[in-house]
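for the writeup, i need someone to sanity check this before i put it in the appendix. the sequnce is what the collaborator sent (i think, or maybe the updated version? ugh). structure was predicted straight from it, no edits. if anything looks off just tell me and ill rerun, i have time this weekend
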Amino acid sequence: MNQHDTSSAARDVVFRIRRFRPETDEKPYYEDFTVPVPEGMVVLDGLWWIKENLDASLSWRSSCRMGVCGSCGMMINGKPDLACNTQVLDVAEDLLMLAPLPNFDIVRDLVPDLAPMLDKHAALMPYTEREDLGQLVDEPEDQLWQTEEQLREYLQFSYCIKCGCCMAACPVVATDPVYSGPMPLAQGYRYMVDTRDDALSERRIILSGEMGPWRCHYAGECSAACPKGVDPARAIQLMKRELVLDYLKLGKLRRRKAAGHLPAEKRKGRNPDIPEAPEYSVQDAPAPGTDTSGRD
């Protein structure tokens, strides 16, 4: 059956959608669309049905349709959530309210501008930094030693999909444009406690100021809104603790050395059960970086 098939509709549901087209509209407004909703239809399917049958100009973001990419975050009946993970009949009987995520500027209709959030995310260095990264590049089979307990310290926070639902729920983000917000801070903590990382001193400078965790009121709404169970509120409180202990020169992160390289004799190397990659289908393909502008 086609994923947008409504032949077995259970009931008609009105999708009341907040619209805004900056090229024509002075301010946002709501528009109603009646959608025949079968059992199991998710909000994203309903939006596609509207676009295919009623109004092709309706705009939103979506990609994976399986709760992984984080693109389709929006307000669903007043709660930030993923449109692809929310079944219409679970949250509405005859009326479904949809709006873009708050605390962001609106690009168009249900499309928020996530650039400020991603800029703050990038500012907190969401990657592993160490002085000997060159060795890992030169020796692809090299490995960094990490115990299972050390992995569990940050694993939960690595499940973030950058959907922005936590930022939309945060009361501090709503009033303070400088505050980094739950998503960037949770990811900053994720790398702070990763034993493979050695950039605490650089992140400490950023986190000690207004972009740090200190303005968090611990409302906990970010964790309640997170569709992946990341619990950014917990990460922010743990970050505060680590930074205070570090300031008092009592923190374990200050004394910790970055994870060492696994000795060569203990490296497992390539898994023999994984087949080799096939040969190139185009044997005479030009090498990367070759100028092909003059080719026919």
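The beta strands are 9-19, 29-38, 73-76, 79-82, 95-99, 106-108, 111-112. Residues 115-255 form a domain with the Fumarate Reductase Iron-sulfur Protein; Chain B, domain 2 fold (CATH 1.10.1060.10).
thx in advance!!
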